[in-house]
Amino acid sequence: MDNRPIGIFDSGIGGLTVLKELMEQFPNEKLIYFGDTARIPYGTKSKEAVIKYSFQCIRFLLSKNVKTIIIACNTASAVALEPALKEFDLPILGVVKSGSKAAVKETQNDKIGVIGTTGTINSYAYQREIRTISPSAEVIGQACPLFVQIVEDGWEDTEVAKLTAEKYLIDMKEHDVDTLVLGCTHYPILRYTLKKVLGEEVKLINPAYETAKESLELLTERKLLTESSDIHEVEFYVSDDAEKFRRIGGNMLNRNIKSVKKIEIEGL
Amino acid sequence: MDNRPIGIFDSGIGGLTVLKELMEQFPNEKLIYFGDTARIPYGTKSKEAVIKYSFQCIRFLLSKNVKTIIIACNTASAVALEPALKEFDLPILGVVKSGSKAAVKETQNDKIGVIGTTGTINSYAYQREIRTISPSAEVIGQACPLFVQIVEDGWEDTEVAKLTAEKYLIDMKEHDVDTLVLGCTHYPILRYTLKKVLGEEVKLINPAYETAKESLELLTERKLLTESSDIHEVEFYVSDDAEKFRRIGGNMLNRNIKSVKKIEIEGL
User: Residue B110 burial (CB < 10 Å; 0-12/13-18/19+)?
Assistant: First the structure.
């Protein structure tokens, strides 16, 4: 039994979808969330930059004495998980691995689509992970950079969203994928539009949910769960604009965030 | 006469539109361009972060012994020009002031539209600047965050671009603006789509062009132009992924960029 907190980080606010799942599955764990809002997005940055930023996030969470770390950002998880496991001596989980496993389990025809930011798709991390688990799988990756802004503008049910999805998903339709990994934290909000374009029967995989589920298994297996039965407030940290995060993050989590602290991440 | 270089900075690659104008108007000046690609975009960051980043960019250019600095980024120019003029002892120009002056000169009906990133529009910098020059002007600001990605995807002539522009520009049409400031370096690429939506007769103001024109006036007036008649290679620096900048930047400038150096900007 281990009463230390669990650390989660993301390039910004998107990882709150993972946090939300963790809050439901771990009601008695202390959770610490860090959003690197000063340097969002990671998806357009180089591999070197994303690894450097991720290591700084991990060092910050280690200074809070966490027992495990969950990389909620798809780009960081795609690029920095392997290097981080070599550099740091604690269990670290990333959304890419968990999402890939679930997709392989779901597909019937072995044709899996993956959508994400340019960084995530070009890193080939989902594609490689899926092929490692299931070498016979055909994986079609497609970067959908406009989707994040469409969601942030609240345009998920507009004609613009539908036309954009149709343009992005042409290849997916032609290849007849039956399972689609939503490889970016914003995309689950587009699920109705995606189903409209790809067909109702396509299975959508939300890596946030799958990661929380896998974390529970890992912590149970390693006997790292807390013995406490208290309910703790989540601690929130960001690298820019705490008030904006408090406001938008509260909306996303559907609960009032009491306080968010801004910290200095450069130089860590 | 002053043979020191002119410094230009932007959050990334967009400021190359300003550089291009400067190269045409200053064929014999040494030009140094810095793109803060590690922290792009500035438009979604807080005022404090944008000022901090801008000061770091300026300190880097000062280390290269520049005689003047041009802030090519609309967000940085909107938020950081005034603080920078207080902090640093050299002439600094920003695209917001130059663009605003030109808009006031062009309008016939005193109704001016401004489009830009969320950061630029919410900073109210163009709106304030235009009203300072012409208190009777009616200024309608509209953030168009999707436009940057649409241009970066090469979608400027698609139905998605047109529908998006129609949604963003409803207010502009209703207010019958006759002059529109393109307050983001990417937007000039959308000029045909914007004219299709707003009407052929609307005047589009490109602050990049106006800023280069004003720089020439300022340097002439203060006798800061070079006496050299040599043609110099522009020096390029970035904070992330030099090769990507070299490739995409070369396309934008329509010329081969020989070398781009990556520097460490954090901590400056």
Answer: middle
Hey, is A50 helix, strand or coil? helix
**What is the value of ipTM here, to two decimals?**
0.73
Residue A223 DSSP label: T
What per-residue confidence (pLDDT) applies to B152?
Answer: 80
Q: What would the pLDDT profile of B44-74 be if each residue is shown by its tens digit?
A: 889 999 999 999 999 999 999 999 999 999 8
Distance from the B149 Cα atom to the nearest Cα atom in chain A, whole angstroms:
6
Q: Which of A39, A48, A145 sits opposite B39 (nearest CB)?
A: A39
Residues of A near B (CB-CB distance < 8 A)?
37-40, 44-46, 48-49, 145-146, 149-150, 152-153, 155, 158-160, 163-164, 167, 240-241, 244, 266-267
Of the pLDDT bands very low, low, confident and very high (cuts 50, 70, 90), residue A267 is confident
With contact defined as beta carbons under 8 Å apart, do B58 and B66 qualify? no
CB contact under 8 A, B40 and A37: no
Q: What CA–CA distance (Å, rounded) separates B84 from B92? A: 8
The sheet with strand A203-205 has its strands ordered as A138-143, A111-116, A179-182, A203-205
Instruction: Please report the pLDDT score of residue A57 as a whole number.
Output: 98
What's the average model confidence in pLDDT over B233-254? Answer: 92
Catalytic residues of B: 73, 184
Q: Do B37 and A45 touch (CB under 8 A)?
A: yes
Burial of A182 (0-12, 13-18, 19+ CB in 10 A): buried
Chain B residues inside the 8 Å CB shell of A151: none
Is B118 buried (19+), middle (13-18) or exposed (0-12) by CB count in 10 A?
Answer: middle
pTM of the model: 0.81
